[in-house]
């Protein structure tokens, strides 16, 4: 008795191009994650930039007080000590970084670099701000870190400026791969 692999396990719905709905679902599977992370990071960056209390050295809801409050419970207190040298500049750096990462992810421009930036921001926030969450899965920064990894690996191959630029390069090179 021989066993083979069956590749036609579902009935394709012909769309004229030989693709069925499962192929399309697989093709665009990362798009909802990309939209969610892009919009969320844009919102987070804008929220910080427009919050007059956040971008201050001290006071209620300030970046300075937040960092001083989590310093002793973080995994890397030295990282917070470095940021506390100029908490306002660090607050601007985080906010502008979130904004750049969000825009890059949403429009799919330099998407792997944007995903790396998002992963690094999420990692730094996990190791500092949400490190003391107990149990660990209550800290949302770890979840964001894991959400960035598929985009870091796959990029934004569809519905993105990266894909449009890649297609344009290929057509200029006569259909070859760049």
Description:
The protein is mainly alpha-helical. The chain is built from 8 helices and no strands. The longest helix has 21 residues. It is elongated and about 55 Å long. The protein starts with 20 loop residues before the first helix and ends in a 6-residue tail after the last helix. The model has no long low-confidence stretch (mean pLDDT 89).
Please summarize what this structure is.
The chain is mostly helical. The chain is 61% helix and 0% strand.
Overall pLDDT = 89
Give the overall shape, derived from the CA principal axes.
elongated
- Fraction of residues in helix: 55-70%
The span between the termini is 47 Å
Measured on Cα atoms, how large is the radius of gyration? 21 Å
The largest sheet, given as strand count, sense and whether it forms a barrel, is: none
Strand content: under 5%
Low-pLDDT runs: none
Succession of helices and strands? HHHHHHHH
Number of strands: 0
Q: Strand pairing plus helix content: what structural class?
A: mainly alpha
Number of helices: 8
